[in-house]
# Entry
Amino acid sequence: LESWVDGAEAGSDFPVQNLPLGIFSTGGDERRPGVAIGDYILDLAAAAELLDEDWREDLARPVLNAWLSRGPEDHRALRARLSELLSDERYRDDLELHLIGQSEARMHLPCLIGDYTDFYVGIHHATNVGRQFRPDNPLLPNYKYVPIGYHGRASSVRPSGEPVVRPSGQRKPPDADAPEYGPSRRLDYELELGLWIGRGNALGEPIAVSDAGDHIVGYCLLNDWSARDLQAWEYQPLGPFLAKNFLTSVSPWIVSADALAPFRSPMPPRPQGDPAPLPYLDDAADRERGGLRIQTQVTLSTEQMRRSGIEPFVLSRGSADAAMYWSAAQIVAHHSSNGCNLQPGDLIGTGTLSTDSDEGLGSMVEIGRGGNQPIELPSGETRSFLEDGDEICLSAWCEREGAVRIGLGECVGRVVASA
Ligand code: CA
# Structure
């Protein structure tokens, strides 16, 4: 199937096989839902007459929560209808008027995020970071039983492009007697996927792994900006707090689970000797199809590189399925396993996605070995952690023989000096 919209050809992030939803505005206009197609956004409120009457109200709101709370049947029906509208030439004249160039629009968060939780399912990341603290015993004994996570802060989640104001906080170098307060000197990024929750569950009613797919409405890229010096001092005994909650960036498009269906893969087999998941986390179909063959890339550009016209430097390339010890469905099942209720528009981070290779590390603290092996950039500069003016761009796409390539878009943030 091909779209009549310019820029939606093979190779685009947003061909007619993708059709992610998001919230956009232009000029001083109100925020409204749109679907990405090629280099454009189709304004869904303006195209409402061609959509089912029952959908119109939810697709005219400034956030998508009400739409997401509907079940997968409605989401599939909208996707099928948009696919028809954007590929059949008969609709071209009616719809072309309602296409807005993505470069003309400002993207917002797709929903009002009630809760944000960050997991830690990237086993290579957990091992690499653990090794810096505990060389002989990098993974704690619970890791292979429990999908580890913590409750993050929803209020500071922002769409791609929002500046990253360097946070200040308590930091205590290992050789200092007492901490001091000041701008973080070890500011880092974390490459993650975000899961958007559609239909929620009632308090007290866990979601089974086999049903989790009906609750995950889509995916995005997520950057869990992290102040490593604040983190090292504050994390015991209750885990991450101010080192993480000053900002979390997400790519603005919700790429649906249906669009990603052709790129499902088996979960990587657990290494010999690892325990089997407890029964409530185990599901045969999820073992076969729970992996996400999503290719990822992280680039860095410094102020000096931009001034000299030097292309962004590739920090890493990897893939989600090679990084995740627990699947998206296991994450959702575990989160609700005690009866905790997830709600439409909740955001869940996977945790940093590093592969087992040096080319696929998802954070600077791993690439630069905790500051011991600074990264050399083509400008002659070096980096152990992020400096003011540095811009990090996460991107991701899916490719497979026999399927049309789709992309998740970009998640960008540039560091600015502390307030
Ligand atoms: Ca994280």
Residues 118, 190, 192, 224, 349, 351-352 surround calcium ion (CB under 6 Å).
